[in-house]
């Protein structure tokens, strides 16, 4: 009888131990499902699909350009800066959203008219700044004899591109901001609205050689990458920042029904 009781006790102990292991496994599974659900919910909350505008320009929407970004579920976005007379800048590409960053790669922009440019500003420690320009067509063939004019205070400064499509402009360093105009055969080809004369620039222009018109559809943003740090991402609004543009607030456009 003693042996049978011991065996019975051992059996009960084993059964109890087995039940405890099963309970622990159930708790572990429940915790795992909870974390998966929480992650899925957080990820869903971090989606930015839809059309957004830059909130800082909301109060001036009728008197200046407005920036809009449309984010699609397939990882593609469209960008447009619209002014009183139409599109000022436009672009298209892939976006990448992580828990702490947003990257906009303008790799899908189709150049419609009249072209686009890539600017790389930098500082120097001299009393003058240098603009290093290279002008190409859309197949990256150099365009010679492009007249370039920098409209600073006083007389414009500039010249013609050489056989390699290159031109160097040097002007005194100031806090002035001025326009840069490219012309060919006396036809305006491209205009940069604001060049900061406190910075040096390496500038590459890619032109269609189609003259600009009063109803220009805007300048293309192509082959540029913008990186932002996520400050806040919640509901129909998110905030990002980078060193170049500072803090920017995106507000979702409400659907009109």
Automatic annotation (TrEMBL):
Keyword tags: Membrane, Transmembrane, Transmembrane helix
TM segment ranges: 28-45
Protein name as catalogued: Uncharacterized protein
């Amino acid at each position: 009888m003693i042996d049978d009781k011991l065996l019975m006790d051992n059996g009960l102990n084993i059964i109890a131990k087995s039940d405890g292991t099963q309970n622990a496994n159930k708790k572990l599974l429940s915790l795992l499902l909870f974390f998966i659900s929480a992650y899925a919910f957080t990820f869903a909350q971090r989606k930015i699909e839809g059309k957004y505008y830059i909130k800082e320009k909301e109060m001036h929407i009728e008197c200046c350009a407005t920036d809009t970004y449309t984010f699609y579920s397939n990882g593609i976005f469209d960008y447009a800066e619209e002014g009183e007379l139409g599109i000022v800048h436009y672009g298209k590409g892939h976006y990448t959203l992580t828990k702490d960053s947003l990257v906009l790669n303008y790799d899908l922009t189709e150049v419609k008219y009249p072209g686009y440019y890539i600017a790389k500003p930098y500082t120097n420690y001299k009393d003058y700044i240098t603009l290093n320009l290279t002008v190409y067509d859309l197949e990256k063939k150099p365009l010679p004899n492009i007249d370039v004019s920098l409209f600073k205070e006083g007389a414009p400064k500039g010249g013609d591109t050489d056989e390699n499509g290159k031109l160097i402009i040097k002007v005194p360093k100031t806090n002035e901001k001025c326009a840069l105009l490219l012309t060919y055969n006396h036809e305006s080809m491209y205009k940069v609205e604001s060049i900061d004369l406190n910075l040096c620039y390496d500038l590459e222009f890619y032109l269609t050689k189609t003259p600009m018109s009063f109803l220009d559809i805007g300048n293309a943003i192509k082959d540029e990458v913008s990186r932002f740090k996520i400050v806040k991402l919640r509901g129909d609004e998110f905030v990002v920042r980078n060193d170049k543009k500072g803090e920017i607030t995106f507000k979702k456009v409400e659907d009109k029904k």
